[in-house]
């Protein structure tokens, strides 16, 4: 920005001065990139290559990349594995519920906060609502456990209403509700930040124009505010869709137990038990690769669709 | 101006937002109340907002557990070391990426950004860490996530916003790249570096899964794994032998006490650092 403002057109016509910097100085710049690149190569790209063990026989203690090719054997294995399809549908259900409920909530909360005229009250609500974002998922899972335990507050309410205490975390039919609710609790406040920032950039004139056209508060929100924050909404939606299958792995791992597997077990937790706990590395890697590829396809498609329909895209 | 409808809306809005505040804060207050309550009151389900049958036995018990303190110290060490590594790597790479004239810049950005959308996955990472011999070492905890690409992009955006003239002037005065970065750029970037330190430190303080995955020995665990094992029932609350009679008696609030002790540092600094996080996130949003 600064450079654009300060460079008059005449200067811009000359070959840019910085393009002719001595190579030696750029070498120093490249040298700063060496360690970070090593990091990416070893800890990010090597594991990507390591996925070949999905197609090779892996023996613990043997080569990281496996012993010999077995082709699509492990892919076929999970395609006929009933547990895989169970966890696959659980993943889709939990992912969809999370998206439907946790994506719009920050928008609603941001719109509500935006209407607050008392600054201190607004700041207070914001500060409190960000708080859960700073907690470890272990703490959140612990809190969920305490609130939902037989001696917890939720059951105290159930009893007060004349019901029997419910061991919520042991009941498969409750798991999705618990997961999505705790996810909403943890993310809603933090999610408002970007929307509130987007709201402050909206042009006041648009509201005035809308008022002159006779638009009430609701119509102003519908026709001015929402379109105004649409780029932010789309960007976040694409990002959410990209991480759709990676549903809160750590939290589920902390919250579920064999009793709730029927509804709680998702692809990442299944492949954790299968790969790490039981040592079926190649099989686990095949499922992991499948998941990662779907994730990549989802993010690229969401991006392409968004680019074509509303003109917002990540790249 | 304020029609009855408008006023009703504002009142309703305030009520709902107050509800949000209550719902958000309640679990914290409940944990604190439980941590100070007597066992029988908790089991009877009578503890909500205020402690019942005020009792500090469990605090004494947890604080006298050597393993708890060892793990707490581990968390501090892991957080400090990991944050230091992350800051150095992120700053260097972000600085390089912020140089628009640099050849191959697009590729360097792409290498980083691609890892946001595609990763090797759990199993290959697990195999890799084992093969590198990092299992049961500090490095397994502090290295695998050393650069967070979102943080990297935030820092890159910040460096790009600095006036180019300053660095050019410094170059004319004979400073090399390292000199410019250390003596000109970094002093101007204290705010963003501080934000990054906070971002990284909080995430390392809170993390548990890498440690859970790659560390087998209890004395290496961070406190989050200690807490996780406690909640999962894998640890008997205490490893000290001095408290045998009390153990059963305080089992119900020991989780609450450990949670409170783990979260206290975060809650203590939260009011002071919260706005830096917010500005950091917004900076990231402006140039993603």
UniProtKB/TrEMBL annotation, chain A:
Name the InterPro entries on file: MetI-like (IPR000515), MetI-like_sf (IPR035906)
GO cellular component terms? plasma membrane
Cross-referenced SUPFAM superfamilies, in alphabetical order? MetI-like
Which CDD domains does the record cross-reference, listed alphabetically?
TM_PBP2
What keywords sit in the KW lines? Membrane, Transmembrane, Transmembrane helix, Transport
Output this protein's name.
Aldouronate transport system permease protein
Give the transmembrane region(s).
27-46, 92-113, 236-256, 281-305
Q: How does it sit in the membrane?
A: Multi-pass membrane protein
Which superkingdom does the taxonomy of this entry point to? Bacteria
> Looking at the Swiss-Prot or TrEMBL record, what is one Pfam family this protein matches?
BPD_transp_1
PANTHER family from the entry? Answer: POLYGALACTURONAN_RHAMNOGALACTURONAN TRANSPORT SYSTEM PERMEASE PROTEIN YTEP, PROTEIN LPLB
Q: Where does the record say this protein resides?
A: Cell membrane; Membrane
Its lineage opens with: Bacteria, Bacillati, Actinomycetota, Actinomycetes, Micromonosporales
UniProt domain ABC transmembrane type-1: residue ranges: 88-302
BP term (GO), one: transmembrane transport
Q: Which Gene3D superfamilies match?
A: MetI-like
Regarding protein family, the annotation reads: Belongs to the binding-protein-dependent transport system permease family.
TrEMBL record, chain B:
One of the record's GO cellular component terms: plasma membrane
The record gives the membrane topology as:
Multi-pass membrane protein
* Top-level taxon in the UniProt lineage: Bacteria
Q: ABC transmembrane type-1 domain spans which residues?
A: 72-268
Question: What residues form the membrane-spanning segments?
Answer: 12-29, 76-96, 108-127, 139-159, 180-205, 254-273
Q: Name one GO biological process term.
A: transmembrane transport
> Sorted alphabetically, which InterPro entries does this protein's record hold?
MetI-like, MetI-like_sf
Keywords of this protein's UniProt record, alphabetized? Cell membrane, Membrane, Transmembrane, Transmembrane helix, Transport
PROSITE patterns reported in the protein's UniProt record: ABC_TM1
Subcellular location(s): the record lists: Cell membrane
Name of the protein this chain belongs to: Aldouronate transport system permease protein
């Amino acid at each position: 920005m600064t450079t654009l403002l300060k460079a008059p057109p005449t200067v811009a016509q000359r070959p840019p001065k910085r393009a002719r910097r001595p190579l030696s100085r750029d070498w120093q710049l490249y040298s700063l990139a060496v360690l970070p690149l090593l990091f990416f190569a070893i800890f990010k790209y090597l594991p990507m290559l390591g996925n070949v063990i999905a197609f090779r026989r892996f023996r613990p203690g043997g080569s990281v990349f496996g012993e010999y090719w077995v082709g699509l054997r492990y892919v076929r294995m999970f395609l006929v594995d009933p547990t895989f399809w169970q966890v696959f549908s659980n993943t889709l259900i939990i992912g969809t519920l999370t998206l439907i409920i946790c994506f719009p909530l920050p928008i609603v909360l941001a719109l509500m906060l935006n209407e607050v005229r008392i600054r201190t009250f607004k700041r207070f609500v914001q500060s409190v609502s960000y708080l859960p974002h700073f907690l470890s998922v272990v703490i959140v899972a612990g809190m969920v456990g305490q609130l939902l335990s037989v001696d917890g507050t939720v059951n105290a309410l159930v009893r007060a209403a004349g019901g029997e205490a419910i061991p919520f975390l042991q009941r498969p039919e409750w798991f999705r509700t618990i997961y999505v609710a705790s996810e909403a609790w943890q993310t809603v406040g933090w999610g408002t930040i970007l929307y509130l920032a987007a709201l402050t950039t909206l042009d006041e004139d648009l509201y005035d124009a809308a008022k002159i056209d006779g638009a009430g508060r609701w119509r102003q929100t519908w026709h001015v505010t929402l379109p105004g924050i649409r780029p932010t909404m789309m960007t976040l939606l694409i990002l959410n869709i990209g991480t759709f299958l990676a549903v809160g792995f750590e939290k589920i791992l902390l919250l579920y137990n064999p009793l709730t597997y029927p509804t709680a077990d998702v692809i990442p937790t299944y492949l954790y038990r299968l790969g790490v706990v039981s040592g079926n590395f190649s099989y686990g890697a095949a499922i992991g690769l499948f998941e990662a590829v779907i994730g990549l396809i989802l993010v690229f498609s969401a991006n392409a669709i968004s680019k074509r329909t509303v003109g917002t895209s990540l790249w | 101006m304020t029609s009855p409808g408008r006023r009703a809306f504002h009142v309703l809005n305030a009520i709902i937002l107050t509800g949000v505040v209550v719902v958000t804060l309640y679990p914290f207050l409940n944990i604190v109340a439980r941590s100070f309550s007597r066992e029988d009151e908790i089991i009877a389900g009578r503890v909500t907002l205020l402690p019942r049958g005020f009792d500090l036995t469990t605090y004494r018990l947890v604080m006298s557990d050597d393993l708890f303190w060892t793990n707490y110290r581990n968390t501090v060490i892991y957080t400090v070391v990991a944050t230091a590594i992350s800051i150095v790597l992120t700053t260097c790479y972000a600085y390089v990426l912020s140089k628009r004239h640099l050849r191959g810049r697009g590729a360097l950005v792409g290498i980083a950004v691609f890892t946001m959308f595609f990763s090797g996955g759990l199993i290959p990472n697990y195999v890799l860490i084992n093969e590198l011999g990092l299992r049961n070492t500090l490095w397994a905890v502090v290295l695998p996530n050393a650069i967070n690409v979102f943080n990297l992009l935030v820092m890159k955006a910040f460096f790009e916003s600095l006036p180019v003239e300053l660095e050019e002037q410094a170059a004319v005065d004979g400073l090399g790249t390292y000199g410019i970065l250390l003596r000109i750029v970094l002093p101007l970037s204290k705010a963003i570096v501080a934000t990054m330190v906070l971002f990284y430190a909080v995430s390392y303080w809170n993390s548990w899964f890498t440690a859970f995955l790659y560390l087998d020995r209890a004395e290496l665990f961070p406190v989050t794994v200690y807490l996780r094992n406690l909640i999962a029932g894998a640890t008997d609350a205490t490893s000290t032998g001095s408290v045998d009679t009390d153990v059963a008696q305080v089992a119900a609030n020991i989780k609450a006490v450990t949670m409170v002790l783990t979260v206290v540092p975060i809650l203590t600094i939260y009011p002071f650092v919260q706005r830096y996080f917010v500005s950091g996130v917004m900076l990231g949003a402006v140039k993603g």
